[in-house]
Amino acid sequence: MPGEHFIASEGIANARRNIEHMHWAAAERDAAVDCARRWLDLDDDAVWSLVTGQTTGRSTNASVTKGCPQCGDGINRYGGAFKVDVLRDPWKIICPNCGGRFPSNDYAAFYRSGMGLDGRFHPDRADRSLLFNAQHPDKDDLLFGWCVDDGTGWTDDTGESFKLIGVYGHHGIWNEIRTACQGLKRAYLLTGKPVYAHRAGILLARIADVYPDMRWSYWAGLGFFNSDGLSGRGRIYGRIWEPGLLITFTECYDAVRTAWKDDDPLFTFLSRKQIVHGLCSQNNVDDLCRHIEDRIIREGIAAILAGDVARNEPGDQVTMAVLSVALDAEDTDQWLDWVFKAGKLRGQEPSGGHIPKLFAGEIDRDGIGSEAAPSYSLGWLHKSQGMNDLDRVLGCRRSYTRHSIRGYLRYKQMFLGHIRMICLGRYIPNIGDTGQTGNPNLCGLTVEQCLEGLELFGDPIFARAAHHLVGGDLTRIHGSIFNEDPEAIRRRVTETVAQHGAFRLDSDLMTGYGLALLRDGADETERTLWLYYGRNTGHGHADRLNLGLYAFGLDLLPDLGYPEHARVWPKRSGWTSHTVSHNTVLVDRSKQQGSYSGKVDFCATTGEAKAVSISSTDVYPQCSVYRRTSALVRISDTDFYVADLFEVSGGTSHHFLFHAAEGIVRTEGLEFTPQDRGTYAGEDVGFGEFYDGEVRNYSGSGFQYLYNVKRCAAAAGTVSADWTITDTWQVLPTSSRPGSATDVHLRWNLINPPGEIALCHGDPPVNKPGNPRRLTCGIVANEGEQPLDSGYLSIIEAFRRNRNIVEIEEVDLPGEPAVRAISVRLQDEYIHTVIFGDGHSSINIDGRICFNGRFGIFAESKNGPQWATLVGGTIIGTDSHGIRMAEAAWTGVVSTYEPGVIHTDEPPPDRPLSGAYISIRNENERDACYRIRSVERENNRTFIRVGDENFIRGMVDDLDYSKGFRYDFEPGDAFRVVHTGFERWEK
User: Fold this and answer.
1) How far apart are alpha carbons 520 and 610 in whole angstroms?
2) At what angle do helices 242-256 and 194-210 cross, to 10 degrees?
3) DSSP class of 172
4) How far is C-alpha 926 from the geometric centre of its chain's CA atoms?
5) Rounded distance, CA 927 to CA 599, Å?
């Protein structure tokens, strides 16, 4: 029962000493005191009365479809959220757009009229004569009943129900209570003043009175909204968000309970409430602790075991650990064992927290959780109920030694994986349900997380990342206020950055997650081309082989990000999460099928070009080829272009999809005919009309969300669309406001497109403040009656003011349909010949340049050959200058493996292999591709070392761990290492 399990007395003493000597610590104390003042200004009765019971509903939205009852979707400009201030404007919510104040009735009076002797609201006893519009009290007034809510909602003339008091209950009452518990806890810890523990005790006592009766399922049945994963289950909130409340209440209790004394005024107040309202005994410290532990903490444990608390992984496990450690009871270790027990969490009765299963397969080799979207998957480490929280809580019970997560190899990768995704220092690709359309977003990465990684694992990248996040201001780096020497970590960061340099990332291939990051340039000229080929289910989108680009400080090819609502929602099903809104190819007018990952054909990086090729026919089983090959090509330190080929074989309809950031679009070589009405689905199909399937489980085209259509018949040669990019999010220092014009251009050059070209508009989610109103989308169609072969070839330029490319044309290669070559003529008489091959065909261009391979570039200036790169081939070049390799790839068979090492009998080639990728042909959904660290030959055996990797992809039996693991590949599987060559002749 004694408290201080999460922050021990030594830590509290450290904090109060640090406050005396360190200005930042004193500032933290002052901020905590300022925050808590809000609840000190109330009297005890007012604090106690903040807590409402089951009969006051909780809803995240008033109306998902209509927004505000007065201005409709106008509220979406503010994220769809009403303003609520429980203390200053009780029982009212205010629309930030129109200023409407709801409900129109005096709900406070109605609530008081229904108050029972037990101190709870009983709606069946409340005076219903009070239910009228206070501004229109005449019964004959047409507005007499407008926006009148009795707690169950108000219904308009169309039958739409607005949960006005429900919004107040969720965003007002319980958000206020949660914030109060957090604020009072911190103020007490940093000051030691009993008044904060007193007020927290009142809140916790009253929460314990009502918590056992809280059932979200009742309100779900009335059409209220909450985060329940469509299960209709939960307690105060839906079951996904409920853990946040339970942890807040429990940690507050643990922090303040040692401050209570039996003779405190707190117990005089609670005893009076107990007598007046017939409540459970709360007469002294022991009674109050028992009351809170039995009716909040143990209720929470029971709710986890019943499935009424079920957060995204590993939220349930963290919650169970917090609750059980705070109890410090005979059964505490039993519940900690449950966290690691084999079993299922989803379902009617969860049977085990299965942490070993998560580290075996749900968390991939890059340390990323299985929910696809970075905003969710990265949260498996760091959000309020992440793995680092579980690590922290387990460490708070030193006597518990049966299980730990620090021994799992992928725990370190969880810290590294987040950092590896950073682009231009301010972005993480907004894959799936992540962020907004083009906004800078690091998905919650904090200095504290980086410092934690540094202390746990010692890798210099953590220090360098922390240094980057504070903009080099080392005064902002320090440990926790509860540490004995919180500034020791600053000294460590300073030394590390001095030794290893500032934060910078090279190109990367996250083969477990499925993300290629091709990086070049530095500082203001840094650019990153990314290609996503990972999970496209759950919080992912149907976006396999989606292409993104960051350059000149901006997101030039943004994903749409988080949908308007993460539930069954027409625009989510038909547009935001659908293939049609991504830079990829739609086959047979249908959404991609869900699968785990595409597979790497090759990844090659040289000083002048970085290229990757990924195949993924699993998303369209009717296709024998569904492959994208993309390259980031350097022109100079500041300039570049992207060469891109998307190949599809199979299916009778292919649509190549492309959109850039917000901006004005101009075209060259295209003559459009506007479509007078309808959408891209047809003149007779209206916007948002589901003409080819139902909203639930929709797999149609999504074309009904593309409007303002104009079409051009197939064009020959090179045609283009040029976006003058808008700085939607005011990222650039030269922008004076969001939406400022820039001199940055994104130019999409299509080379001999195979069919009709259309430009349309498509809308980002409208309830995300700051999102662009619309984007311009390009579509290249190729349709027929027989299975088709399409090759969408393009050069993507990004530049400021003036182009660096003078001319782009395809090189004619008669009789070689499997090879595509482009002549890219640059300023100052430079020419790049870019070639996409099949690895088998040998070609000759203009009688000069020979090529055999998967990809290559031959760069020439007016003075002659400049440089060349060759991937997966044997030759590129002229008679006098070129690259020749004895073999295109090293191939062999896996004989066996051990953690971090692949064994083969095949001798390695006589060439450097460090940094290359080994791909193993397996028979499962995961891509067995790994970056080679070194290759050694001993005693007729070759050892291919790939670093911190155990090759595990899951358990043989998720309910019986003794049966062992499943692996990415097996002995006898074939492997290949695609060779890359690079030569420079002109300095």
Assistant:
1) 8
2) 140
3) I
4) 21
5) 5
Distance CA 517, CA 645 (A): 17
Six-digit token string for 399: 């006597």
How far apart CA 724 and CA 533 sit, in angstroms, is 28
Q: Structure tokens of 884? A: 């020749």
Q: At 126, which helix (H) or strand (E)?
A: none
Q: Is the pLDDT of residue 365 over 80?
A: yes
Strands (E), 91-249: 93-94, 101-102, 154-155, 161-162
- Per-residue buried b or exposed e for 32-60, using 16+ beta carbons within 10 Å of the residue's own CB: bbebbebbbebebeebbebbbbbbbbbbb
Which run of H or of E encompasses 326? helix 315-327
Among candidate residues 531, 517, 603, the one with its CA nearest the CA of residue 977: 603
Task: Output the CA torsion sign for 746, 752, 757, 762.
Answer: negative
Total-model pTM: 0.95
- What is the token pair recorded at 899? 């953690």
pLDDT digits (tens, 9 = 90+) for 747-768: 999 999 999 999 999 999 999 9
Element (H, E) at 194: helix 194-210
Dist. CA 747–CA 30, nearest whole Å: 52
DSSP code for 427: B
What's the whole-number mean pLDDT along residues 94-107?
A: 98
Return d(Cα 512, Cα 525) in angstroms, integer: 29
How many angstroms from the chain centroid is the CA of residue 153?
Answer: 33
Question: Which domains can be identified in the chain, with CATH numbers?
Answer: 508-810 (2.70.98.70), 811-885 (no CATH), 889-981 (2.40.10)
Contact, 804 vs 829, CB < 8 A?
no
The helix/strand/coil state of 910 is coil
* Residue 169 DSSP one-character state: I
Rounded CA gap, 921 and 903, in Å?
15
